[in-house]
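User: what does the whole thing look like in 3D?
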Amino acid sequence: MNAAEPNPLDRTFHALADPTRRAILVRLARGPATVGELAEPFAMSLPAISRHLRVLVEAAMIHNQRDGKRRRCRLRPEALGGAHDWLDFHRRFWSGSLDRLDVHLKTRLSEHNS
Amino acid sequence: MNAAEPNPLDRTFHALADPTRRAILVRLARGPATVGELAEPFAMSLPAISRHLRVLVEAAMIHNQRDGKRRRCRLRPEALGGAHDWLDFHRRFWSGSLDRLDVHLKTRLSEHNS
DNA sequence: TATTGACTTAACCAATTAGTTAAATAAAAA
DNA sequence: TTTTTATTTAACTAATTGGTTAAGTCAATA
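Assistant: Here's the predicted 3D structure for the full assembly of 228 residues, as structure tokens:
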């Protein structure tokens, strides 16, 4: 119900939430490829792939540049940055919470034992 | 068009793709909270929050246990693991690609200069 | 210049998402 | 036992997603 445009982190995580798109990213990590090459392993029409690619382009995770009559896609290696940083930061913070919970439980336990 | 149930990585990234859900996770990193406490900062009905929580529960990122007439939510600190590992692995791999591209470009450049 | 090849865009459809309000549930308090 | 509090579930809606096929676009080739 919200027409506001999603922020970059939303786009990145959304892009990553689909297995076809993750597979495309994995493929592109091995080097650039044309749309046709990217589509080949999937049992899915070309337009469907084309739209997955658009999602990735809009998330700034790949770009897509014309090369003769092909269209060559390549990874933007900085693209995972935002998502990775978010996860990394919060994972540490979470572990921190876990540690604090440990301390809390240990405290309670030793209180109980004493 | 696909009724197959999503895999855990899909669920995790999907859960993270919404700013309300990320904010809830950030809040829970500071410690457990009831549904009402979690809902309070948002201009959104309680049922809406309740469903965001369900998404997080189904992604195994939080749990939600009855405590008297409240319902107390807490983080499952291991929950970011899968997503983090995926990102971390691929980011490295990706930087690898970038390095290889650098080498490739430098090689071409020195070829050009010689 | 007409055709072919490689895509993308358009138009459509079914399923899912993210919100709403109203009704149900379950435990605590009166 | 009735009421209140906290929350979920149900029923609904609008927008978005992820697929389809058919029609366009645009560069290379015949």
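In plain terms: Residues 81-113 of chain B form the longest helix (33 residues). The radius of gyration of chain B is 21 Å.
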